[in-house]
Every structure is written in structure tokens, then in C-alpha cells.
Amino acid sequence: MKPSILFIGAGRMAEAIISGLHNKGQKQINQIFVGNRSNSDKLKELEDKYGIIPVNQLQDCIDQVDIIVLAMPPSEHEVVLENIHPFISNQFVVTIAAGMGPESLEKRLPYGTAVGWIMPNTAAEVGRSISLYTYGQFIKNEHKQQMEILVNVIGDSQHCTEEEIHKLTAITGSAPAFLYQFAEILISMTEDLGVERKIAQKLVTEMVIGSAEMLKTGKLPMELRDQVTTPGGATAAGLEVLKKGNFDQLLKEAVIATNKKAKG
Ligand SMILES: NC(=O)C1=CN([C@@H]2O[C@H](COP(=O)(O)OP(=O)(O)OC[C@H]3O[C@@H](n4cnc5c(N)ncnc54)[C@H](OP(=O)(O)O)[C@@H]3O)[C@@H](O)[C@H]2O)C=CC1
Ligand SMILES: O=C(O)[C@@H]1CCC=N1
Which of this chain's residues are annotated to bind NADP(+) (predicted)? Predict the structure, then answer.
């Protein structure tokens, strides 16, 4: 039987998965219910766009769903899980929140509840997330199939251990923000050179896409970097500035700080 899903949280990540299910998962799922904290306009918008069923009282629909996706901030999990605990019977409960692994879900749900954790990224919106996922200890085959539906409609995926996801949250979940910061600086510098915003954005975007395509050939980043860097040439002068400014160390510190904050 095709599963029905309840999303708790209706923000950008929930919408990306709902949109993926709407576009690519129609045949694999039954109904989608969505509840949030207070933004009823957003629920109406999702209803108009994807035909979801808006939910005011979560407890009223839990017994109609097979999967519950927790798509609200990590800080809200404690209270939401406490509220839904009495109504959980046999649902597969999946969180997408940073720092909230299966261990913390199992602690807050009835003993024996099947749980999972997905760490997507915002490229889910265009079906290009690389999503990490893992399971709790009470998982059955049907839950693995349900997990596959969720991750496949938003892009590529990688099965990991819970500990790996804690350590990789910065790399696949948050590092897109680091890349966008990098792009923003280059675009802004291009504009300062007198290039109009639209063109500047196009130049930097295509440079990033082209570089990503080169990485996809399987060549090592070091090799690709060396191909750009003519010895004693222009790029070498730029890389030297990054080296002097301790770019490597700074990036490592950013990754460590991200994971530390995510784990709480
Ligand atoms: N953004 C990202 O790049 C990534 C985010 N994540 C995780 O995804 C989760 C959601 O993030 P994102 O979509 O970006 O966040 P948004 O801020 O876009 O959305 C948050 C949603 O959670 C709802 N919400 C908040 N509190 C509650 C509550 N107590 N009960 C029900 N709903 C609630 C909000 O409802 P309302 O508007 O009514 O307040 C809103 O719909 C987070 O846990 C985050 O860690 C994971 C990977 C990547
Ligand atoms: O910033 C955050 O907390 C989330 C986790 C991964 C990406 N965004």
C-alpha cells in the first residue's frame, strides 16, 4: 500500500521534499498532510501548489499516515515529540533536523518506533541535494523503501552511520552556504568592475557549474587546481594570498564550528 506522509514544519526544506514528491513521487505515495506552528498562509500556498492537506491539529491526522517527517528547527523537536508521543502507533518518524539523530528520536518516542534521519541541503529545491541518511534500531524493509522515496525525489543520496552524519552536516548540509558566500564576493567584485549584476551573476554561476562538472569527471581537485595554475603565473599569485591568509585553516575552523553548533 502506498504510504501517506505528514510533514511537521512547512519551511523551505519541507517544501523542497513536497515539491519532489509532487513531481516525481506521485505514483509512490498516497496523501501528504502538512502542519506548521502558525503560518496558515504558507499551508494554503502548499495546498494550492501541490494539493497537500493542511493540518491544524497534528493529533487528528497521525493515525492516517505511515511516515512523519519532522521538518521544523532542532530546538522545536523536544516539544513536538512530546506532543505527538501519545498518538504514535506504527509510524516511521524521520527528522531532517541538524543534530537530531535516531538516538535522540528514539529516546523521545514510544519504545520500538522506527526512526530515520536525513541530512539534505537546499539544492533539494532543484532536485540536486546530496542527502545523507541513516536509520534507528527498529527499522524494517518497508521503512527502507519509504526512506528511498524521500531521498530519491530530491536528488542523490548516501547511506551513513549516525555519527558520520553528525560529522558531515557541515560538509554537505552547510557548506553550500560557504560556497554561496564565495560566489557573492566574486559577483560583488565583478559589479564593482562595472559589470551589470545580471551578467556578473551569470559569469560566476557558469564558472562554478563548469568547475563542478570538472570535479564530476573524477579528477582530483589538486590536479584540477594545478591545471589552472601556470607555474609562476597569475593564478599562483592569487593562491599565494589565500595561503598567507590561512584559507585552509579558516575553512577547517568553519566546518568544526558548524558541526559543534549542530550537535548542540
Ligand atoms: N536550510 C537548510 O539548508 C537545511 C535545513 N535542515 C533542517 O531542516 C529543518 C527546517 O529547516 P528550514 O526548512 O530551512 O526552516 P524554515 O525556517 O524554512 O521552516 C521552519 C518550519 O518549521 C515550522 N515550525 C517551527 N516550530 C514549529 C513547531 N513547534 N511545530 C510545528 N512547526 C514548527 C515553521 O512554521 P511557522 O512558519 O508556522 O513558524 C516553518 O514551517 C531544520 O531542522 C534544519 O536543521 C537540514 C538541512 C539543510
Ligand atoms: O544552518 C543549519 O542549522 C542547517 C543545518 C544544515 C544547513 N542548515
Answer: 8-13, 71-74
